[in-house]
Each structure stands twice: as structure tokens, then as C-alpha cells.
Write a structure and sequence with these properties.
Elements lengths: L9 E3 L2 H4 L7 H8 L11 H14 L4 E5 L2 H4 L8 H16 L3 E7 L5 H5 L8 H16 L5 E6 L1 H9 L11 H28 L6 E13 L4 H15 L1 H7 L8 E10 L6 H6 L21 H11 L3
Parallel strand pairs: 1-2, 2-3, 3-4, 4-5, 5-6
Helix pairs in contact: 7-9, 8-9
């Protein structure tokens, strides 16, 4: 297989997962309140990013996706930290010095505690507050960054936080989930326009902006009518629902796809929750599993890329 000369190969991290010490994040508070294992010092990437990027360079990476921790940049409502934004400028310059292309994510699941306490993504003010943060970060990093991801995996965040209730704020409400989805769609569209406006103001080359959309291969276990219909619905809602809304506004410069695994669809009966959730429990089509127990199904990535290339 031959790849283009300028093809970008790299890895990705999220600030909360690797930096350590993000004490002003809603996840930090949530872990503490529920007696969960705290993220603590993480892998201390905040301190050791230079060594981490040396390792990436040794692996011949020429791109790296990282996230900005909003709760560091804006630890309290409307108060921005110059010290923290300078840290992230140093991180970006550190990548550039190694000829590693930075790709910056503005929201990777976590929120500042003050934002969560004021209603989080359900609040009418959420989009305006997110835009204020994005304006500050973009103006600081614009001359060093070409690629931006506004929101990481909205269709992971929304179900986990507002339908299944396993992430903060642990809601279980379709109505609240719909409100959050609408606000995240608006946040992306308006941030997309904002970043392009800032680059124009600063007389910089146009940036390239997207979301990172988690996509899953929904495969009917037995290709009967109900399984195929359920797989179609899940694909339409989970893989393409959010994407379609922002594509209608022409608010994407590329399509960011995160792909991990497949889901074997096997309905027990015709019900709304069955159509949305039922999976094969008998392991009818066994494949190898990864360390998380997810099916290793590489052909699903190929299928997803064809779908986003030729959306129906």
C-alpha cells in the first residue's frame, strides 16, 4: 500500500487523560464525590511533554492530536489564565520544532466545574461561554495551528452523560440529551465561523476545522429484516445524525473519523429500546478482542470511510 508523501501519521491524547492534576475539571470533582479512583497525576504529560514528543518523533510520527483543558484556561467563569495558555503555546511550539503537525481539540469530554454547576451543556448560555473560551484559545494559538477539532465524539459524550448516565452529570433523560445535542451542534457551527473569522482578521492562511466523530460498524448478526432495520437506524442516528446537521451548514473542512470496533445487532423483539440497544449475546461471529474486550474489526474502518466519502 502506498500513501501520499504528505500523509499524516500520528497519535492522539486528551488533556484530562494524560496531563494529571486537572483539579478544576468536572470529572475531577465527580471522581472525588463518588469515591472513584482519581485520575491524579495521570502520566504527567503536563510536565513531560517534551520527552513524550521525543518518543513520538522516534516512532516517526509527523502529526499529533492533543486537547486543551478548558478548566485550566478558564478556571473560573470569565477569568482566563495567561500562564496556562502560555503552557499550551510551548506545547504546540515543541511539536512544531520536531516537525510534528499539531491538531488541537477544544473540547474532549471534560468541562470546568463552574460551567457544570451553571447547567453545563443544557444551559442557554453554554454556547456563548464555549465561544468565549474558543476565542481566547484561538487567538493565542492561531499562528501555530492549522487543524482544529471543536468537539471530540459528541455522540459518545451525549449518550454516556445524558442517556446512560454513566458520566457526569449522570442524567438519564432523552429530553435533556436532545437539548445538549442542539447546543453542541450550535457550538460547533458558531466556533467554526469564529475560528475562520479570527484567521482572516490575523491575515493567516485558512484553517481546517472539523469534529472528531466516533463511528461504529453496525453489523446485523443474522441479516433478517428487523436486524437490518435496527442497524440502519443506528447508523443513521449514531454515525451520521450529528454530522448531517453540521454538514447542512457547511461547517466542516474535513471529516474527522474515530473508529474502534463493530456492534453485532441482534434484536429480541420490536421495541424502541430494542431497536436502539439490542446486540448479539451468543458470539455468533467471533473475532479477536482488544484489551478492552471490543471486537477487532478493521474492515469496519474501510466501510465507514466509504460511507463518509459517499454519504447517502
Amino acid at each position: 500500500m502506498k500513501f501520499p508523501q504528505d500523509f499524516l501519521w500520528g497519535a492522539a491524547t486528551s488533556a484530562y487523560q494524560v496531563e494529571g492534576g486537572n483539579v478544576n475539571s468536572d470529572w475531577w470533582q465527580w471522581e472525588k464525590d463518588r469515591g472513584l479512583e482519581n485520575s491524579g497525576r495521570g502520566s504527567r504529560h503536563y510536565e513531560f511533554y517534551e520527552q513524550d514528543f521525543d518518543l513520538a518523533k522516534d516512532l516517526n510520527h509527523n502529526a499529533h492530536r492533543l486537547s486543551i483543558e478548558w478548566s485550566r484556561i478558564e478556571p473560573s467563569d470569565g477569568k482566563f489564565s495567561q500562564e496556562e495558555i502560555e503552557h499550551y503555546i510551548d506545547v504546540i511550539i515543541s511539536l512544531r520544532s520536531r516537525n510534528i503537525e499539531p491538531m488541537v481539540t477544544l473540547h474532549h469530554f471534560t468541562n470546568p466545574v463552574w460551567f457544570a454547576k451553571s447547567g453545563g451543556w443544557e444551559s442557554r448560555q453554554s454556547v456563548a461561554k464555549f465561544l468565549r473560551y474558543c476565542d481566547f484559545v484561538t487567538r493565542a494559538l492561531a499562528k501555530h495551528v492549522h487543524y482544529w477539532i471543536t468537539i471530540n465524539e459528541p455522540m459518545i459524550y451525549i449518550p454516556h452523560a445524558y442517556i446512560l448516565g454513566v458520566w457526569p452529570p449522570q442524567a438519564k433523560s432523552l429530553l435533556r440529551a436532545k437539548k445538549v445535542e442542539d447546543n453542541l451542534v450550535s457550538a460547533h457551527i458558531r466556533t467554526y465561523c469564529l475560528i475562520h473569522k479570527i484567521y482572516k482578521e490575523l491575515n493567516l492562511l485558512e484553517p481546517s476545522i472539523s469534529i472528531a466523530q466516533n463511528m461504529q460498524a453496525f453489523v446485523p448478526c443474522v441479516p433478517n429484516l428487523k436486524n437490518r432495520f435496527a442497524a440502519y437506524l443506528r447508523d443513521k442516528w449514531y454515525n451520521f445524525g450529528f454530522l448531517d446537521k453540521i454538514m447542512r451548514h457547511k461547517a466542516m473542512d474535513f471529516i474527522g473519523v474515530n473508529y474502534y470496533s463493530r456492534q453485532l445487532v441482534e434484536l429480541e423483539k420490536w421495541g424502541i429500546s430494542n431497536l436502539a440497544m439490542d446486540v448479539c449475546k451468543e458470539n455468533h461471529h467471533p473475532v479477536k478482542k482488544n484489551s478492552l474486550g471490543w471486537d477487532i474489526y478493521p474492515q469496519g474502518l474501510y466501510e465507514m470511510l466509504l460511507k463518509v466519502k459517499n454519504p447517502t
